[in-house]
Amino acid sequence: MTCTIFPSVSLALAELEALISHAQAADPLTPVTILVPSHAAGLDVTRYLGRTLNGGAGSVGVRAFTLKDLATELIADDDAVNGRRPLLPVLRLGAVSRVLLHEPGLFKDVADQPSTARAIARTAELLDAVPDPADPELPELMQEVLRLHGAAKEALGRRWFTDHEAFTLASNKLGTKTVTQRLGTIIGFMLGTENRPGEAIFRASLNGAGMQHLTAAGSAENGVTLLTASDADDEARAVVRLVVERLAAGTPGHRIGIFHSASQPYAALLTQRLSQAGVTFVGPSAHRLMDSPLTRGLLQLLKLDPQELDERAILKIHAEGAFSWHEQKLPSSAACERFYANPPAEEDYAGADTSAHADYLEKFRIFQSFKEALAARISQVLAAASWNDASASLISLLEDFMGPRGAGERPEKSAARDALVEAASDLRHLDLVGPLPRPTLLQSALEDGVASKGRWTGKSGTGVVVGSFADAVARDLDVVFLMGVAEGLAPARTRENPLLPDSARAMLGGSLPTVEQRAEASKEQFFAALATGSEPFITSPRGDLRGSGSYEVSRWINRKPEPQNQLRSFAHGIENGAPASDALPPTAQEWRLRRILTAEERTSVLEEDRALQHALAATRDRRDGIFSRFNGNLGAFAGIIADPEKPLSPTRLEEWVTSPFSYFMKHVLKVSILEDSALEVQISPQQRGNLVHRVLEDYVRSITKDGLPPSSDRLMELADSAFEDVANPAWLSHVWDRNQAMLRQDLKRVLADDQDSFTEGWKYLAEEATFGPEDTDSHPPVELTLDDGTTVRFRGKVDRIDQHSDGSVRVIDYKTGKSKDYEPLAKHPTAAGTRYQLPVYGLFARTLRDNSSDVAAEYWFISKAGGFKRIGYTVTDEVVEQLRADVGLIISALRNGVFPPRPESDRYVNFTTMMGAQELGQQWLKLQNAPELQPYAQLLKAEK
């Protein structure tokens, strides 16, 4: 064996051409076999030889192979593999899982964990190379791993052959005259150090057959540009900028390569920056099949309990666009979230437009049918009696529930679906070697199958080459960028396999590489990559902004970057009003920023950029307290936001006072915050209030409608029934028990207070009364004529109506919280314009009285926290006049499009907390004194 080392790939290629020319000097058809490290390198080598051999005529006798491809060709006609197939990773996993199920040994406590089988299966790929593992000196754990490996091989039988077996059989073939003649002159081109024992064995046999080696190793000392950037993101920006410069200078894209030390974060960053710059690129996809919404969705479905389907998981999958039901078109993910948060009921939509109501209920029905069908299909998959059935059910689930939406589907989504179908199809082979399917094993097997499916972007020869350092070896390129050359990335931290430590590897033999040997191979690979191209660049990040750490240039580089090559950050250029570099801006965004930073007019130089000008206007108006379209001034739409014919509830008026912006989001744009009660560990205040309202409503109805006498026992029966209906399994049982006891005590106190009222002449008139919705049996809307002559119509639902023996009427609104925030009602009928339920309910109650008897409206705080306090008043003409004045202001604001961002309380989740309570509060301090808001100042500055 001879090995010649060159300082660059170009020189190695020239020597390769010379060797082939010499071998074919007597006969141009003399076979020559070239062994290359990758398929991409093989393409580059054959294209180079096609341009240079025989004056550009090429040679039909020259073929390039990877080691595995050559081994596969050599054993194709071998009787030892006749009728057998290459071993799929999922089959080894299945065989190991089967052995762990029946003979777990030391792994009995973790045998049912998918990660256990996965770790042993990966280790087994190395153990295939161990000649005789029977060494009594081996640690007990190592002996146990070897036992499981041997049992798994026995379970696999003779139907499959491993890579190691293929390399061994191919090695044996090399000694035959037929193979020697077929291969001819054998040249290894930049093969590097093999970390896989099987390939190392085959390579040693090729050396014995006379293989000549050509390799190249670059140097970081001379002719290499070393650059550092603030972090990986700026590093990617700088590299793409340099690439664009080279393209502009005339370097073809396919002669430029960008290679990184770690796929995270470089693969995604390069994909993003190259795409933004409009640069076509070729290489392994930055988006793994495992990262696609279809894959995430399918794996998530397999983790669900079909008997109790987790709707939150379904909504998440739907929001990512993974669902497409073959039976019917699904409602949008936003609509389905509303269904989950507030399932529609017939009574909720009484009086609504019948066509809209029917459409809404039909969409809800479709969503319910979809969930039922999906649960049934998941059950079918998880209950499969064989892997063949599981495979077929999985494919059916994909096609029926996650199929294509139409001919315009994105190619990457179609490719992901095809790869998933292939991975699911491979599972059927597990019937031959694996245990019976069970949910956890099914998930693990599918995950491993998905992980083995590589994805590719672009077509070779059509764009800039991207990939890892390994992808750079033996490539024929002009300009090469090696990114991420920093400590911790290059070299990366190499760890021992706990199931196969270095100490055991030495005892086992079989040329198993140690941590030190693997680290040395990584270094060799880096310098082989550095030898690629006539204009090499090395880049290194100075910091890791994602991990708040810093980086040093790799120990492999024996020099420091020049000061001018320490690139300033992208952010530095923006903050200091100067571009980070004088180089050509590669993206539209950077071009616009460059123009702004270098022009005397600054931002005004881009007047035609509407998005930029709007952003600047929004920033200015919010900073200076100007009431504009960016701060809730929708005066341009005055008169069309509020529908004068549509009844308003008094609580909506209160919401506008609390936060006009929140009102706009909820009631104009119809944006709602999903409050997931399933995540709570105890009953929420809102749920508590609804529960108490329900119990008391049922109790009062039993007296007013059914004619039953008052009864404490019946009240407790109704309470227990309601407790059973609303109980959430996620609630802490001891807390829920305590809450029930407290609620029972509160209800008993309410009943006792009612008994006292009865002795004073009061009685229940109605358990509830609804007014406002049309086309129903409820009362008509309550109308109030405003000072400007217009009429506002109200709707609402009174919790209870009592009547006194003297004919007076009292409307009651139950509250289960504290009474402190409502105490200002004792001094002002609308609490300075912040509370409207009592006067509006009183206005409604006036329509129920038979004479001119008094009408009272009150809040009753029916809990120990509220002290069972009653806050209210008699609804007099003076109260109505105050209501008229305060409502008039709010209606005027709604009609004029006044929705300033007054902050809400930051004690719970709302639009204020979602947008940033502190920042919104600072904006409001500047905005509240705007002249346009002064007519409403008494409301907007009131404390609620």
Question: What can you tell me about this protein's structure?
Answer:
The protein has 944 residues and is an alpha/beta fold. Helices cover 46% and strands 11% of the residues. The chain contains 34 helices and 25 strands. Strands 8-14-13-9-12-10-11 form a seven-stranded mixed sheet. α9 (197-208) links the parallel β6 and β7. 36% of the residues are buried.
List the helices and strands and how they pair.
Layout: E1 2-6, H1 9-23, E2 32-35, H2 39-52, E3 62-65, H3 67-74, E4 85-86, H4 89-102, H5 114-127, H6 140-156, E5 160-161, H7 163-173, H8 177-183, E6 185-189, H9 197-208, E7 212-216, E8 225-229, H10 232-248, E9 256-260, H11 263-276, E10 281-284, H12 293-302, H13 311-319, H14 333-341, H15 354-382, H16 387-401, H17 411-426, H18 439-451, E11 456-457, E12 464-468, H19 469-472, E13 479-483, H20 502-508, H21 515-530, E14 535-541, E15 543-544, E16 549-550, H22 570-575, H23 588-598, H24 610-624, H25 650-658, H26 660-668, H27 685-704, H28 712-726, H29 733-759, E17 762-766, E18 769-771, E19 782-785, E20 791-794, E21 796-798, E22 800-804, E23 809-815, H30 837-846, E24 855-861, E25 870-874, H31 877-896, H32 911-915, H33 917-927, H34 937-940
Parallel strand pairs: 1-7, 2-3, 2-6, 4-5, 6-7, 8-14, 9-12, 9-13, 10-12, 13-14, 23-24
Antiparallel strand pairs: 10-11, 15-16, 17-22, 18-21, 19-20, 22-23, 24-25
Helix pairs in contact: 3-7, 4-5, 4-6, 4-18, 5-6, 7-9, 10-11, 12-13, 13-14, 15-16, 16-17, 25-26, 27-28, 28-29
Mean pLDDT: 87
Extended strand count: 25
**Morphology call:** elongated
Question: Residue ranges: pLDDT <50 for 5 or more in a row?
Answer: 346-352
- Number of DSSP helical runs: 34
Q: Quickly give the structural class.
A: alpha/beta
Beta-strand share of residues: 5-15%
The whole-angstrom Rg is 38 Å
Please outline the major beta sheet: 7 strands, mixed
| Helical amount | 40-55%
- Separation, N- and C-terminal Cα atoms: 89 Å
- The side-by-side strand order for the widest beta sheet comes to 8-14-13-9-12-10-11
